[in-house]
Design a protein that fits this description.
about 160 residues, 2,3-Dihydroxybiphenyl 1,2-Dioxygenase, domain 1, about 25% strand, globular
């Protein structure tokens, strides 16, 4: 599947868009098998701030702020390539859903290093991509695949579009 200049992308100015519901928040819910390690990793190492939460003898739940959230839809051919467009090791385990956490950072190298110190496995070292991002890929201690990217140009993409290869 390719997207060409002739393909029509939906526009926010589309009159039918007003009939659609507006989403005010996006959350990624992670069921953490090792609660303390997950809190340390996502709150402390990744630097997400605590919005609210609770804990009792039986359960705990926290909401961590991550700035704005978006959904980036990626064609399977693109998601199986590393940030240089080459085929790479797939960082999602076969038993996990085909999702990963993608975080925009003002320093991808520093963020990847902090995540590694907190128990993440670096599977794609920080490097400059053809579209002007510094990108790294890690797998968190809870097996969550995470892409860290730092835009150095005007792009908002964490992955290399096929035209940039």
């Amino acid at each position: 599947m390719t997207v060409s200049e002739n393909d029509q992308l939906p526009s926010a100015d589309d009159p039918d868009a007003t009939a659609r519901p507006r989403i005010s928040e996006l959350r990624l819910v992670i069921e953490a098998q090792d609660w303390d390690a997950a809190v340390e990793f996502y709150r402390d190492a990744l630097g997400l701030s605590l919005r609210e939460g609770y804990a009792n003898d039986d359960a705990a739940q926290i909401i961590l702020e991550a700035g704005s959230a978006s959904i980036e839809l990626v064609h399977p051919e693109l998601s199986s390539a590393d940030s240089d467009g080459d085929q790479s090791t797939d960082i999602a385990s076969p038993s996990s859903p085909r999702i990963r956490l993608v975080v925009r950072s003002d320093d991808a190298r520093e963020t990847a290093t902090a995540l590694q110190r907190a128990g993440a496995e670096v599977v794609d070292d920080p490097h400059l991509t053809p579209i002007g991002t510094v990108t790294a890929r890690v797998v968190g201690p809870d097996h969550m695949p995470i892409t860290v990217f730092q835009p150095l140009s005007e792009t908002d993409f964490a992955e290399v579009p096929p035209a940039a290869e």
